[in-house]
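User: Teach me something about this protein's shape.
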Amino acid sequence: MRTQSGKYIIPILTTIVAGCTTMGTGTGSTPSGGSPTVFSWESSDGVTGTMSATMPGGQTYRGQYFQITKTTTVDSIGPLWVGGWSGWGDPGGWGWGYWGTDPSPDFITHYSGRVVANLAQPSGAHMRCQFRLAIPDEGMNGGGLGRCQLPDGTTIDASFPKN
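Assistant: First, the predicted structure itself:
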């Protein structure tokens, strides 16, 4: 598409769309201070995106994250259940309460205003995460605190500063 001045508008639109992408980092460790973890996230819509967690030794978990809002549907958060529960033990563990074996409206109600993620290694091992946002209207950009659980049950406390 050309504008009246003869220049292409596509590069301008690409720049505008790319300008909407937000990204940030966070840090984490086990409650005793071990296993320092570096988190990074990126979003183009403010409520969903990709996240990675790099553990000591270079093991990296990657996947989608979702901010649960009043407009979230059960179908839209289906990827949170990829990988099943193998290795996680009791899903009701340390406060995962409504993160049962299948998505449900109760999950959306319980986690509304939070960010949840299911991150995986290429080997298939999964890490699940939940974060309380400091400023929910700003999504991950507003910062927050949370916790992730590794397949062996080890937890990582995470902190994301406000951007």
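Now, about its shape. Strands lie at 22-29, 37-43, 48-54, 60-67, 114-120, 126-133, 144-149, 155-160. Residues 70 and 109 are 8 Å apart (CA to CA). If you'd like, I can walk through any region in more detail.
User: That's plenty for now, thanks!
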